[in-house]
Every structure is written in structure tokens, then in C-alpha cells.
Write a structure and sequence with these properties.
Serine Threonine Protein Phosphatase 5, Tetratricopeptide repeat
């Protein structure tokens, strides 16, 4: 009974609550990002419309950059640029260049990032 009384009287400060929340929430954020990457890869494989494929590839390169998978993000950006140029899809091409700049920025290659932007 004395042990139960100790837990009843113990208060958790807002800072401790925040730390506990972050300790449990942060590991799961990586899981959701990898699920997003997997989902986008599946959509790319079955997408028939080239402009929609460009848009999905742009989302995929952004998601890969978010999880710090820069080699694959570079590869996806290159494929996106090629497809967008082939079908003359200017909005997708602009986004692909922006994604290329974002990948370069995240890798620390700032001069190349500026050139892409």
C-alpha cells in the first residue's frame, strides 16, 4: 500500500511529459516515411499517365531526401528530369529541378544547389 501511495503523489512536469512523448514518437516517424517511400514506388510502377508519373516521381525524390537516401533521390531526380523533358511537362520539370536543388542542399553542395534552383 505504501508503494501505491508514492505513485499517487508523484507529479510529472510538462517538460518530462514532452520528453516522454518525443521518446516514443520519434522512432515511429521514420517508419511512416519509409512506408511513404514504398507507397510512392508502387504508384510509379503502375502509373500509365506520364505527367502523373512525373508528379509521383517528384514526390518520391522528396521523400527519399527526407529520409537522407541521397543516392536514390539523385537517381529518381535524374529519371524525373528525363521523363519531364521527353513529354515537355514544364511544371514537372520545374519541380524536378527544385528537388535536385534540395538534394544538393541537404548533401551540403550549396553551389550546385543554387545552380539547380
Amino acid at each position: 500500500m505504501a508503494a501505491n501511495a508514492i505513485f499517487v503523489k508523484m507529479k510529472i512536469s510538462p517538460l518530462h511529459k514532452l520528453v516522454l512523448f518525443l521518446a516514443f514518437a520519434i522512432p515511429f516517424s521514420g517508419i511512416s516515411q519509409s512506408r511513404k517511400v514504398d507507397s510512392l514506388r508502387k504508384v510509379v510502377k503502375v502509373e500509365n499517365d506520364d505527367s502523373n508519373k512525373v508528379n509521383t516521381l517528384n514526390k518520391l525524390s522528396g521523400a527519399l531526401t527526407d529520409v537522407s537516401n541521397y543516392p536514390q533521390a539523385d537517381s529518381v531526380v535524374l529519371a524525373t528530369l528525363q521523363l519531364a523533358q521527353k513529354i515537355d511537362f514544364k511544371p514537372g520539370l520545374c519541380m524536378a529541378y527544385a528537388n535536385s536543388g534540395w538534394v544538393c542542399y541537404k548533401k551540403g553542395d550549396y553551389s550546385k544547389a543554387i545552380a539547380c534552383y
